[in-house]
Amino acid sequence: MTALASAKDTEMVVNKNSASPNRVIDIDNLSLTFETNDGPVHALSDIDLKIDEGDFVSFIGPSGCGKTTLLRVIADLERPTAGSITVNGVSPEEARLNRAYGYVFQAAALYPWRTIARNIALPLEIMGLGKDVQQHRIKKNMELVNLSGFEKKYPWQLSGGMQQRASIARALAVEPDLLLMDEPFGALDEIVRDHLNEQLLQLWAKTNKTVVFVTHSIPEAVFLSTKIVVLCPRPGRIYDIIDSDLPRDRNLDIRETPEFLKIAHRVRDGLRAGHSYED
Amino acid sequence: MSTTIVSRRRFDMPALLAWFVVTMVVVGLFMPIFKPDIGVMEVPKLAVCLVILAIAGVRYELGFMRNWIGDVALGLVTAVAAWLLIDTASDYAGEATIGFWALTAAAWAASWLFVERLAIWKSRSQAATRIINLVIPALFGITILVIWQLVVTGAGVPKVLLPAPSEIWVRLTGSVPILWADFQQTFLKAVLAGYFIGCGSAFLTAILVDRVPFLRRGLLPIGNLVSALPIIGVAPIMVMWFGFDWPSKAAVVIIMTFFPMLVNTVSGLAASDAMQRDLMRTYASSYWQTLFKLRLPMAMPFIFNALKINSTLALIGAIVAEFFGTPIVGMGFRISTEVGRMNVDMVWAEIAIAALAGSLFYGIVALLERAVTFWHPSMRR
Fold first, then answer.
1. pLDDT in tens, B55-81
2. Does A77 touch chain B if contact means CB atoms closer than 8 Å?
3. CATH number of residue B302's parent domain
4. What distance in Å separates residue A104's CA from the closest CA in chain B?
5. Burial class of B3 by CB neighbour count within 10 A (0 to 12, 13 to 18, 19+)
6. Which has more confidence, A256 or B10?
7. What part of B 259-298 touches A (C-beta under 8 Å)?
8. Does the N-terminal or the C-terminal CB of chain B have fewer CB atoms within 10 Å?
9. Residues B36 and B135 placed together within one structural domain of the fold
10. What are phi and psi of B79, to 5 degrees?
């Protein structure tokens, strides 16, 4: 089994090298149209986006602008109808089959019949990892999200914030280089959210993962990201891409600085302009 | 403690019951007990019964010994009173008049009072709560049996209409070999075989149907059609196909249990939500991995619903099917022949066995369900 896993790893490295060295996601002229009974819905239109290794990219935009759909295209949960996309230099489907990413959903989506530890073990079981490796990764990632001691609890015995942390630990246990997060803290209160944002940043700084993060909170997007992608609806398209010049090592106080406010302002302007276009 | 609980109600039920006991005792004292004109003092056993019920009622009204000793004494006194009533009723079968019924009512009210008192002790400790939770339903069942016994013997209800529990019990204990053979034939062979084959094949069919949409459109209507067939039409045909012995009854049970299991399993397999399925997709999970790790656990509440429904359907199906041809053994066969011979107590003995077996079967499935679907919101404690 380990031989197989290492074979997969080398394959992925080869793939990575064959494309541009640090390019993780390369989206070119991508469109996605849903055929519905009321006629076609243009969920995404002419998306061009490059994401490099170590980037923390946020998609921000009003509801229905296609930010979640774009993330789902990267994860091969939706198929684009036009244009091209590569993840780690290969098609999203191949990347998914290689288990190249971890995906955190809007809700925790933990299985209620499994304890927290067994929930985190779920992807590891599917990958066919040995029991020792599983135990090691469960322990490590539960510590990482501050859930040690809750291994034997069932999801419904924990608070919403703890459940969401468990789901992050589950995504991290796969040990992906790419983390896709779809409004993971959307349902949580401000205080828990701030805390988890800080933890997420620390984790990102520690591991140099690539993160793609969907949110509709401007402060969250600016605080976390190295690159902010502002989307606007009908059809869903990119309005603005903002490269943040904030230092990578940040804490919550940075939200009071003029640099932070400047970026936040530009994001807000982008969102407003995208909205007015529609009316 | 007890007063706070009682005062939350609009009226004081235990006090009301105690007054009722006393009133009924007074009625019993002054009205004739048995025809033609026998007073309570002429029947010593009933006199004792009357006195102890009176003491129990008055004791409660006076508030004397309102502690666990008093409550246990109340329970014992009620049991003795009930026993004395049953014992004398059989000597004067069919001759009970208003005084006897008053004493019956008093004993019934006293047992109710006892249950009311038990409920107060419930919150004291966990062990006590658990025991009392078992005792109260048991007492309810016993009370019904006692009243059944008293009414049937006291009013002299003909045995053909409704035999007394004591008569059913005598018949039941006296015909254990016959009942055991019937139980073996009907339950251990036809019901269990039919149940496991029916539910098992329906489960596998459901997985197949779920995998192949073409089959869903083809097989579900056929399953529906078969389940709509009347059992009294199907049973004779099954007897012709599979012979007189238990396989034909098992076949009827299979037909009865197949469709509920199929429909429930199919909808259970569709019960996982989009996010959970997407999650498995992001793990590049195979069809079988998704089936075993997500969709089957998710389907378990549905599957157990079908298993519970089928546990009772199976027994009904097997018993009814035996009306259409069977070797000279089996619960359905026994019921149909003993009815013809006016041996109604034997019919009731079979009914008692069927009820007991059916309840136990259902209970085992329900216990299993609790263990498997402990995570479901309806099971969480």
1. 888 888 887 777 778 888 888 989 999
2. yes
3. 1.10.3720.10
4. 9
5. exposed
6. A256
7. 275-276, 278-285, 289, 293-294, 297
8. C
9. yes
10. -60, -45
